[in-house]
Amino acid sequence: FTVAVFLTIAFIFYNSAQVAEVSSEYSRYFTAIINKALTYTPFDIVLSEHQVRKLAHMAEFAALGFFLTFCLRVYTKRLIAFCAWPLLFGLFIAVCDEFLQRFVPGRSSSIKDIFIDFTGVCGGTAVAICIVFAAVLTRGDTDLSFESSGEIIGTVKTQGFRNSANTLPLTQKF
Hints:
It is a single chain. By secondary structure, the protein is mainly α. The chain has five helices and three strands, in the order αααααβββ. A three-stranded antiparallel sheet has the order 1-2-3. The chain is globular, with a radius of gyration of 20 Å. It starts with a helix and ends with a strand. The model is unreliable at 146-174 (pLDDT under 50).
């Protein structure tokens, strides 16, 4: 997952380093593809180039949040205690991304874009945490600790759905 994090950051910065004309050309191309695909749905939706650009920002930062969370999971089981790290690092990359755009001809930076990017990071992180919890609950025999500053707040030890005769497969210790 570490490689995926670095590749995602490189992809984000590469896209931000594109001059306005090139970036707009890509946006027009993908807007046409997306709007063509939307004609096959029962919804009467047509997205503007601006909307596609903002959704693309959110999507690439969602991927970053997703990979950052799984990268963290590789290094610690205390995911909840450390879930702020992917969020803060994602916010840092969003700020750097907008700062980079200030120096690219025809591009500008905005606080609103930082919030859009950070929303993507939060969404990707939330999806990754849900996947981790689902895996822990179904796989069983895994501790998921809730620790903060070295003080144990609580732990959840799962017995697993497959191997347990209990109707409630969780036991909590606080």
